[in-house]
Specification:
binds nicotinamide-adenine-dinucleotide; alpha/beta; two-stranded antiparallel sheet
Length: 362
């Protein structure tokens, strides 16, 4: 098993990565001085698939509750949080509780927020079971829920005690969920260095084939990169903004498409739009433009956008939390590893970028 340290000031933590590492969860808890009263919030689908492994967390001499929750954006709300609090109280869980989130980003965000707020904060372990949760949502301490129509608007920064990534969970993921994680991995390739970019460019098909060596390498590199960024900027006041590459466009597209496009797929289209914008405003040469588009286009067979209302996407982008003074703020690429933050652009340029980014996936 590999171990990566996320060096957050005052609360550093380990990310343990390995195939079948889930069987070591109890031993990892034991090794650390954390409470053994476990409250596991488990994705219902994951529970059905891995019931035997999950039930091993229950032993005679330890208090363990398995709380099942369906993973959908609809269940990422305060009602689910209330249900978790009620069960915790009913079963008399005190401050000496460790909440374990076992599932994708939905479960991680909900269970994380419950852990951040129950009795003003109890221990938290993240066990991400989707590729997206492993490389993104389980790292960095953002937790929260949706409120009416607004995504992730109620929440807290709350770092886990540790994260355990078992890459064997990915074997049961549908292709669209692998693509969703791949979207974030492609983003990291743009943000890190030429070596990772070239490696991913050569191995995208191996990600879909779940080649264990490729998956382990890309998951580790992504976690290491995100871990370093969040360690430097825990509360997103500066550097962490680079993680939003493709996300302002992507979120607009995701909402306009009524979530028929998964998050990571929308991020890929969003990065494509950013690349078109970078070229339009003269940030990149034609040669770099071709290089960037060629990595994105490798996912073309898995992403289909039949039609899109560009003005609607633009309006959604205008509501983005990261905007200032009514201006859309974007992260744009200058080169691999060189990003520009808080770039503003006019409506004409943005519509141009969207039109061309989306056209790639028609
Ligand atoms: N906190 C953060 O920093 C952060 C970052 C990115 C995304 N997010 C949030 O994460 C959520 C998306 O996460 P996600 O893509 O993991 O979605 P998800 O949690 O909805 O999981 C996707 C689907 O995969 C299923 N699933 C999970 N593990 C499985 C497995 N091993 N085998 C088979 N099926 C499995 C789930 O039941 C679900 O149907 C969004 O709500 C988003 O807002 C949070």
């Amino acid at each position: 098993m590999a171990k990566i340290k996320v060096q957050i000031e005052n609360s550093p933590y380990d990310v343990i990565i390995g195939k079948h590492s889930f069987s070591k969860l109890t031993a990892e808890i034991k090794k650390r001085n954390i409470p053994k009263n476990l409250f596991c919030v488990v994705d219902e689908k994951v529970y059905k698939l891995y019931r035997k492994e999950i039930l091993q967390l229950k032993t005679k001499n330890r208090e363990t509750t398995i709380f099942r929750l369906p993973a959908s954006e609809q269940s990422k709300d305060l009602t689910s949080i209330q249900k978790i609090y009620s069960r915790l109280l009913k079963e008399k869980y005190g401050r000496d509780t460790t909440i374990i989130a076992i599932g994708g980003g939905v479960i991680g965000d909900v269970a994380g927020f419950a852990a951040a707020t129950y009795m003003r904060g109890v221990q938290l372990i993240q066990v991400p079971t989707t590729l997206l949760a492993a490389v993104d949502s389980s790292i960095g301490g953002k937790t929260g829920v949706n409120f009416f129509d607004t995504k992730n608007i109620i929440g807290a920064f709350y770092q886990p005690n540790f994260v355990l990534v078992d890459t064997a969970f990915f074997n049961t993921l549908p292709k669209e969920e692998i693509l969703s994680g791949l979207g974030e991995i492609i983003k990291y390739a743009f943000l890190t260095n030429e070596k990772l970019f070239a490696y991913l460019n050569k191995n995208i098909n191996e990600v879909f084939a779940l080649n264990p060596y490729v998956i382990r390498k890309l998951v580790s590199e992504s976690i290491m990169f995100k871990g370093n960024v969040v360690a430097e900027d825990e509360k997103e006041s500066g550097l962490r903004k680079i993680l939003n590459l493709g996300h302002t466009f992507g979120h607009g597209i995701e909402v306009e498409q009524d979530y028929k496009l998964k998050h990571g797929a929308a991020v890929i289209v969003g990065i494509a739009s950013s690349v078109f914008l970078s070229r339009r405003i003269g940030l990149i040469t034609e040669e770099l433009f071709q290089k960037y588009i060629s990595i994105l286009i490798q996912t073309k067979d898995w992403i289909k956008i039949e039609s899109a209302n560009l003005n609607k996407i633009y309006k959604i982008m205008q509501r983005d939390k990261k905007n200032r003074l009514g201006e859309i703020r974007l992260v744009l690429i200058k080169d691999v590893g060189k990003l520009l933050l808080d770039v503003t652009a006019g409506k004409r340029e943005i519509l141009f970028a969207l039109e061309n980014g989306i056209k790639l996936f028609r």
